Amino acid sequence: MIQFSTWDILRNLLFAAEWTILLSLVAFVGGGALGLIVLFARTGRSTLLRRVSILYIELIQGTPLLMQLFLSFFGLALMGFDVPPWFAAGLSLTLWTSAFLAEIWRGCVEAIPRGQWEASSSLAMTYFEQMRHVVLPQALRIAVPPTVGFSVQVVKGTALTSIIGFVELSKAATMITNATFQPFLVYGLAALVYFALCWPLSKSSQILERKLNVAHRNH
Amino acid sequence: MAYVFDYAAIIPYAPLIAKGVGITVELTVVGGVLGVGLGIACAWARSLGPKWLRPPVSLYVEMIRNTPFLIQLFFIFFGLPSTGLQLGEMQAAILAMVINLGAYSCEIIRAGIEATPRGQFEAGASLAMTRIQTFRHVVLMPALQRIWPALTSQIVIVMFGSAVCSQIAVEDITFAAQFIQARTFRAFEVYILATILYLLLALLLRQVMRGLGSLMFPRRRVAR
Predict the structure, then answer these.
(1) A6-216 in CATH: which number?
(2) Could you tell me if A81 lies within 8 Å of chain B, comparing CB atoms?
(3) DSSP state of A141
(4) ipTM for the predicted complex
(5) What is the pLDDT of residues B22-35, one digit of tens each?
(6) Which of B65, B78, B164 is most worth mutating to test chain A (most A CB atoms within 10 A of its CB)?
(7) How many structural domains comprise chain B?
């Protein structure tokens, strides 16, 4: 029987962590792009678009991520599409991220004083020009810390994709446990790898919040 | 090939789903109550407790907040038995949820406690209240009232997290859904049903928390 040293276990976990990072990046970038579209719909002037985007956000925030994963993995397969686990994982995490980011960013957009909207509309700017030149540059400053903070949720969310069979850090930990019968060590190490990924993000979110708040304190 | 929906295939499994709803509710209620209790204790320790208690509590909070619930659950269910602590799946699930919610609610409640003006402590002391009385009446209750909406959202998130407990064979809604899916191959129907059930439970939980809030805080103590 092959013996696994602690280093073997850690090396394999780190190898699998690459997929956790990659999936997090895909979800964050894709979710950010889609989230921006949802944000425009949510804060825009069309009542229909606003209602649709509210429904979208409520549905995604109001149901477990695991159910969304199952629906896209098993559900789409039954509709006749051939869905590999990585696609279902990427798709549902992207949708999930977009709903949360859109809602976070909406808060930031609404924190911009109404006078800014009135001033820019009196300059005959269209909605997109207002967002592009007046509101978003100011909202960005408030939006950075919570966005970085949410990225931690995305990294942790990728752990669920192991349940539909996507091999990332959690799935690798389960597989290594099945081979080594050392769950305490393996899951402990996996937790440490997640901690090493997430803690810098949490910390930088806190530091950014303190730093970027300086300009706001004296208003 | 067009897919034909067939919800009738699920009907024979209704008792299994009903049991699943019961288990999910049980997990949420027990985990929620104990978790918020742990959160209050940790928030006290981190903001008002003795100095030596703060680093270990901070470490606990940071460790839990920066690792996925799935790994925490597996660590407790599969990992702890090797140290001699054997837990059933229900106990492991509840322990994991309490530990998880304890860390998150600690941070939320601490934010509420730290928003208490200093004068309130002094006012409590000048009314000859003991430290415990001051904490309970002057600090904690207004703090809870301040952060009640955030706490509600966190408990809803924990309820969604409880779906993961199906992976250690806790027979909750997700477990029932996976079981039925494996038997009938009616994945779309059964997962849509499960999703709707979670949606309804979340709405119900928000209502219950709102009712509990107005019961616990009959007067508006906090000037907003």
Answers:
(1) 1.10.3720.10
(2) no
(3) H
(4) 0.89
(5) 999 999 999 999 99
(6) B78
(7) 1
